Amino acid sequence: xxxxxxxxxxxxxxxxxxxxxxxxxxxxxxxxxxxxxxxxxxxxxxxxxxxxxxxxxxxxxxxxxxxxxxxxxxxxxxxxxxxxxxxxxxxxxxxxxxxxxxxxxxxxxxxxxxxxxxxxxxxxxxxxxxxxxxxxxxxxxxxxxxxxxxxxxxxxxxxxxxxxxxxxxxxxxxxxxxxxxxxxx
Length: 185
Ligand SMILES: [Zn+2]
Description:
Bound molecules: zinc ion
Mean pLDDT: 92
Strand order of the largest sheet: 1-2-3-6-7
Low-confidence stretches: 175-185
Order of helices and strands: HEEEEEEEHHHHH
Shape: globular
Distance between the termini: 19 Å
Helix content: 25-40%
Largest sheet: 5 strands, antiparallel
CATH architecture: Alpha-Beta Complex
Oligomer: single chain
CATH topology: Peptide Deformylase
CATH superfamily: Peptide deformylase
Number of strands: 7
Strand content: 25-35%
Number of domains: 1
C-alpha cells in the first residue's frame, strides 16, 4: 500500500471518511506503525486526548490515546474490542478534533474493558472507569462512523443547530478532492 504518512492530517466533519465503518487491519504491517506514530504526533499537536484512524481519512480499526491525568501515556490500540460495564450511563462534556468548536454532553457507560493489539504487536487488556473509559468509547465510536453529534442530547442539538450547519457549509472544497472523497464514501 502506498500511503504518504507524513502528509496525513486530521479531517473534519462533514468529511465522509468520518462516516465509514472501519475494517480490521494487520498489526504486523509496518505502515500501521508509521501511521500510529503520525497519529500520536497529530493528537499532541491538536492538544487532544485521542485520535482514531478515520480522523486521518483511513477506515482502519486503530486509535491512539493519551488521556492526560487519567492515563498520561501514548497508547496505540489496534483492532480494539470494547466491553462496556453495565450500570447507569454517565453524562459528561466531550469535544472532538474532527468537530471543532463544539462541546456536548454525551452519555457513556461508566466503565469499560478494552482488548486490542499494541504498536509492538502484543495483546493488551485494560480496564478503566470514568474519563478514560469515556475516551475509549469516543474513539471506538469513530471506528464505526459515529460522532458526538449523533449522541448529543436534544437540547444540545437545538442549541448547536446553526453551528453544525455552518460546519457543513464550510465543507471542502477543491472539486477534485471532493469528487474523490464522495466516491469513497
Ligand atoms: Zn472524536
